[in-house]
Design brief:
This protein is of the alpha+beta class. The radius of gyration is 31 Å and the shape is globular. The protein has helices at about 1-25, 80-90, 135-145, and strands at about 45-55, 60-70, 115-120, 125-135. A four-stranded antiparallel β-sheet has the order 2-1-3-4. β1 (about 45-55) and β2 (about 60-70) form a beta hairpin.
Length: about 150
């Protein structure tokens, strides 16, 4: 019985060795990795923008929300993704630069707070921004010229 086991193991080893040698001679092609294409790489820019009723982002009731992705092309549920991405790009992703008071728009002194937020990734960096305004009029006075929060 031992003889047959040894003979079987020897035959298996011989067959495996011949198969490997045969493969070495028949597989003369070379394997090459595809060149890396840096043109296809980009830093992601994907955001969720919200407008909510309330004084704090954590407790504000979200009234409207949109998604905005700027890389590789402007898309999302935002009504004007191209314009919004262009504004954010011009501001280097700084939401604070987009909410500068424009003009002398008269607003009431009513306290009915509105909070806007921008969360996500801008050019590969995590962003979390929020601002609270006294009421909707004040929000519109700060963002009326822009497209980012026009939804």
């Amino acid at each position: 019985m031992r003889y047959f086991r040894a003979l079987g193991a020897t035959a298996f080893a011989t067959a495996t060795g011949l198969a490997l040698v045969g493969t070495a001679f028949t597989g003369t092609g070379t394997a090459e990795a595809a060149p890396a294409s840096p043109a296809g790489l980009y830093a992601p820019s994907a955001l969720v923008l919200t407008i909510g009723q309330g004084a704090r982002p954590a407790t504000a009731t979200v009234v409207r929300a949109v998604t905005l992705s700027c890389s590789p092309a402007p898309t999302g549920t935002h009504p004007a993704p191209e314009a919004a991405c262009a504004e954010l790009d011009a501001a280097d992703g700084d939401f604070g630069r987009l909410t500068v008071l424009s003009g002398d728009r008269p607003c009431t002194r009513e306290w009915n707070p509105v909070t806007v937020t921008g969360d996500g990734v801008w050019e590969g960096k995590r962003v979390r921004w929020s601002a609270t305004y006294g009421n909707t009029c004040e929000l519109q006075a700060r963002t009326a010229e822009g497209a980012v929060f026009a939804f």
